[in-house]
Each structure stands twice: as C-alpha cells, then as structure tokens.
Amino acid sequence: MQGNDHSIVRAVLAGDKEAYGALVRAHSAAVFRVAFRIAGNEADAEEIVQEAFLRAYQRLEKFEQRSTFGTWVYRIAVNCALNRVGQPGIEADYRHGEESDPETKTVQVAAQDADPERVLLGREVSAAQELAMQRLTATEKCAFVLRHLEERSMGEIAEVLGVAPNAAKQAVFRAVQKLRRELAPLRGNA
User: Fold this and answer.
1) Top-level class of domain 1-93
2) Residue 99 φ then ψ, to 5°
3) Are 78 and 34 in contact (CB under 8 A)?
4) For the chain, what are the domain ranges?
5) Segments of the chain scoring below 70 in pLDDT
C-alpha cells in the first residue's frame, strides 16, 4: 500500500481533503493497537489515534515520503501515547485477570468451567506481565511493543523512535532482558 499511500498523500496535498479518510481507514487499526499497548486502555488509545491522525493531517506537507505513511503516523502516535501516559493524573486502566483484544474491542475472560487454580494463576501471570511492562523505560516499552507485538522491523522501530538502528536494537534487547528478569520467578509456577 506504500505506493498507494504516497498517491493519496499527493491527492490530499493537491486539495482533495476527503482522500485523507482512506489513509485513516488503512492505518487506524494498527495505530490503535500500538496506542492501546502503550496507554493500557481503550479510551486513551482512541484519543491517541484521533490526535495522531489530526497531527499527521496538519503536518502532511512536511511528510517527506522517504518512509511509508504508516511508519510516519506510527511515530506520531507513539509520541502522542508517550505524552499522554506521561501526563500527571492519567493512570493506565489495566484489567488484572482479563485479556483485552484491541482488534475487536472486547474483553475476553477465562471460561466459566476453567479450573479455579488455573484462573488464579492466569491472573497472577497477567498482573506480573503488566507490572513488568510498566517498569520499562518509555523507549524500551515502545521498542518492545513495536518489535514483539507489532512485528515491525528494526529499521521501522529506529525511524519511529527517532534513533539509530543500533540504538533501537539495544532498546529491544534491554526490554527483553528486563522482562525476562522480572518474569523469571513465574517459570517455577508454570
């Protein structure tokens, strides 16, 4: 879609303001996923998506088209998410014991007939994972989310974070190492 995105951007810049909707439709689900994973709740993620696409629209003439529109709007969304999460008074609304699916915006819980011990263990593991993610630096968290949850390339991660590719690799490596250390005690419970 990269070539198509570039032609849509050119159309918007030429005056076809309605064409921007095609870019929003093409990239909003991916932007929502990354915003949700950084912010930790649906309401903040939706606001981040709106803010990111608004900022992208307002700065569209600055888009150099060296990268894909998707990578560019990802970078804007990551910055919006980090700004939002860093605001005083805004707490991530983590759901301990539940797994949220940002694609369908529904909450999935353990089956009613699940073994109570298994449900309790699942909640414990989920809470530990969330706590471990909160202990990462903003750069590490973003790098980890983009690499292991969004499956982005190191080049894209570096571009989104505005760092050299080697720095992006280091951020992913540090995040993985920290998460392994934090979650190591759970291996004995599994």
Assistant:
1) mainly alpha
2) -115, 120
3) yes
4) 1-93
5) 1-3, 86-122, 188-190
User: Do you know the residue count of the chain?
Assistant: 190
Tokens 């696409």 belong to: 53
Tokens in use for 62?
Answer: 């600055």
- The CA–CA distances, whole Å, from 10 to 6, 19, 55, 81, 133 equal 6, 10, 17, 27, 39
- Return the sign of the alpha-carbon dihedral for residues 73, 52, 101, 178: positive
In angstroms, the CA 100 to CA 107 distance is: 5
Q: What is the pLDDT of residues 146-183, one digit of tens each?
A: 898 888 899 989 988 889 999 999 999 999 999 888 88
Q: pTM of the prediction?
A: 0.66
**Secondary structure (DSSP) of 38-107:** HH-SHHHHHHHHHHHHHHHHHTGGG--SSS-HHHHHHHHHHHHHHHHHTSTT------TT-EEETTTTEE
